Amino acid sequence: MSTDYQRAREELGRKLRGLRIENPDGRLTGTQLAQRLGWPQSKVSKLENGRQTPTDDDLRAWADAVGQPMAFAELRARLRGFESHIRSWRRQLAAGHRPVQETWNTLVAESRILHMWENNLVNGMLQTAEYARYVFERYTDLRCSPRDMDEAVRARMQRQEWLYRPGKRLNLLMWEGALWAQVCPPGVLVAQLDRLLGVVGMDTVHLGIVPLDAALRIPPGNPFSILDERLVVVEDWHAELWLDDAETIALYRRVWDTFAESAVYGAEAQQVIARVRRGIKV
């Protein structure tokens, strides 16, 4: 867990403890508050010491129980302030993949220009429905989340309508290794590669492929997306990182530009994709 995230969680815990102590009807002990809330005393302790992240419902119940319901707005704002940076998959996927895809649909719909780096899989903006279904199945199995593949696929396909709207621009770089990743049956992967061959040259898509034998100035790192130079979303195994400070956004843009120097485009990109396609044994 990042130091900044933990520090913010501990600060929220101190605020909760202060509200408990300053209860208008007299100071409450942690045990007394737990009894009012119907919680284990250990939950009160974990929240106050920054060892557990509260939900909105937890914060509202706390504010009401200590006789200070007006404090909920500030508590919620504090929670949003640090949760917006680290969005754990465990919490995001509690209701399945569809809500996550719908959040992304909103993010993309509000954006005009996307810069994306993908080194693990074919990027979701260009996935076929069948390829996407297998990707969701793999992550569902890994994270033991609800199996809502049909709804998730529909949401992801809906997002791709953005590609056909005037004034939009997808600047996508993919490492050749992502094209080889057989997270689906070979026939599905071949169809996915055919889809990529077809988008080369689209007015709204600038696709670059970084060949496996290309010289890299920096390691491949993690996949990330830059949305209109206002937000960077980085994907890791435990969470998505949403980063919105100007210095960090500028850093990721430099990373993207560095990868772009190693990429090939147009006919050369098609040659790399076609070479991978020929290498897939159906």
Helix coverage percent: 40-55%
Largest sheet: 8 strands, mixed
Count of helical regions: 13
What kind of assembly state do the chains in view correspond to? single chain
Tell me what the structure shows.
It is a single chain. This protein has 282 residues and is α+β, with helices and mostly antiparallel strands. It folds into 2 domains: 3-83, 434 Repressor (Amino-terminal Domain), CATH 1.10.260.40; 110-128 and 158-279, Endonuclease Chain A (Endonuclease, Chain A), CATH 3.30.870. The protein contains 13 helices and 8 strands. Strands 1-7-6-5-2-3-4-8 form an 8-stranded mixed beta sheet, sandwiched between helices. Helix 7 packs parallel to helix 9 (149-159) and helix 11 packs antiparallel against helix 13 (266-279). The model has no long low-confidence stretch (mean pLDDT 94).
Task: Give structural attributes.
282 residues; alpha+beta; 434 Repressor (Amino-terminal Domain); Endonuclease, Chain A; 8 strands; 53% helix; 13% strand
Chart the SSEs and their pairings:
Elements lengths: L2 H19 L8 H8 L3 H8 L7 H10 L6 H12 L2 E3 H4 L4 H13 L3 E6 L10 H15 L5 H11 L9 E7 H5 L5 H14 L5 E6 L13 E4 L3 E5 L3 E5 L2 H17 L1 E2 H14 L3
Helix pairs in contact: 1-5, 2-3, 4-5, 7-9, 8-9, 11-13
